[in-house]
Amino acid sequence: MTNQTKENYGFHFDNSYLQLPHEFYGKVKLNPVEEPAILLLNRTLAKQLELDVDALFTDGAPILAGSQMPNEAAQIAQAYAGHQFGHFNMLGDGRALLIGEHVTTNNTRFDIQLKGSGRTPYSRGGDGRAALGPMLREFLISEAMFALHVPTTRSLAVTTTGEPIYREQIYEGAVLTRVAASHLRVGTFQYAANFCDRDALKELADYAIIRHYPQLMHAENRYVAFLEKVLDRQASLVANWQFIGFIHGVMNTDNMTISGETIDYGPCAFMDHYNRSTVFSSIDTQGRYAYGKQPQMAGWNITRLAESLLPLIHDDVDEAIQLAQKTIEQFPTLYEAYYYNGMREKLGMLTAELGDEALVDELLTLMEEHEADYTNTLRALSENKRPNKPIFQSPNFGEWEQKWMTRITQRGATLEEALKVMQSVNPIVIPRNHQVEQAIQAFVEGDTAPFLELLQVLTNPFHLQPEHQKYTQLPSEDEPPFVSYCGT
Ligand code: AMP
Ligand code: MG
Hints:
Among the domains are: 165 residues, no CATH class; 153 residues, no CATH class. The chain is α+β, with helices and mostly antiparallel strands. The site of magnesium ion has 3 residues, from loops.
């Protein structure tokens, strides 16, 4: 093809994953689609990746839909297993195709993956396809997360296939181009530990270390050091989620990366009024992945990683268990440190003092009691405003406010300094579920304007712009509670 040789759209592939034993992936046969068309292209990201944006936009649709491959493509699906809602299953990329690892001139490596491009060796009963709505949702929310300073996979494009996909209804088929530091998951290690031999597990672990944490190759016990590192990244990541009221919704071990990036935007949603038991996902009937349980579930997942690494940690099983145990026990303390340091910042407390944690918890309890909107309450405090809301009128808030004012102006700090920091970490806008749904609905029906406006607003969540105001509105009282569905 002529357009394949056209500088390969700027893609420079170096597919290191293919050096792993064959059991870690399966070759994917291309599934050419009817009529590929790029609906969304993330030009900023494409430029950062040093891609040829114009060529990609003009001629790249067949590649981004998985109908053709660029030169040197890997064209594989990755094998992994995972605990889904506590139950262990063999999984793998059932609807994702890894085009390859794109390496930029400063030697940064990115997986370029097509989500929804058709069947793979791991599709089991599925069609490997995705509907337009959920792919638009992943694009919007992952880009919003990035703007909110949360580590995340990115979205390069949404491409329609021109083919219908069949679910409980018929939808338009689409493919999301996902960009990730890698797609190695806790579940990749569970796969190796359960279905491969020790040598393969070791190759995987060394590969992950070299790819993400190369300095650990020289550690005394590099597998313990690796476990510590992933644990640290995940503790920090979940704290980041808590800061903005993000509920992942499906924190299965296959949806937890080794890199510490948020992955797999299925039934995720954002909390409006503060409540630790908030769940949106229709399939999470037990509240396993409720807002307040996310830290605990991350710890549970890390324990599954630790189990998988046991054969590498020490030849003596008891010794290995002890070492792993000692490491994973650090999770709650580490998480709390990340969490309270971040919350301290969100409340403008610029030094660490005794009693800070209680002050944070007291405010959250007040929010819970008064059903106060988490984002708007924190932003109002950051702008030193007290809008006409029940929380701000309550005597308990008055008491809290006095303690807080005394606290933030302690040690010579000024209120202005505190507010400035607060405004830099408390967003004005988050992807509110009702607005996201409306924008996606309109897009699917042909009106792209609301989606593009929302995307624009969410890309700049900390600086007030005139159009921000309407996106701080809560759903109206008579709207039914938001329920999210898995994006298949
Ligand atoms: P997810 O809920 O996206 O994390 O997916 C869980 C598992 O189901 C993964 O192994 C996916 O590859 C697989 N899967 C999800 N949707 C499909 C589909 N339409 N066809 C085949 N496999 C799928
Ligand atoms: Mg997944």
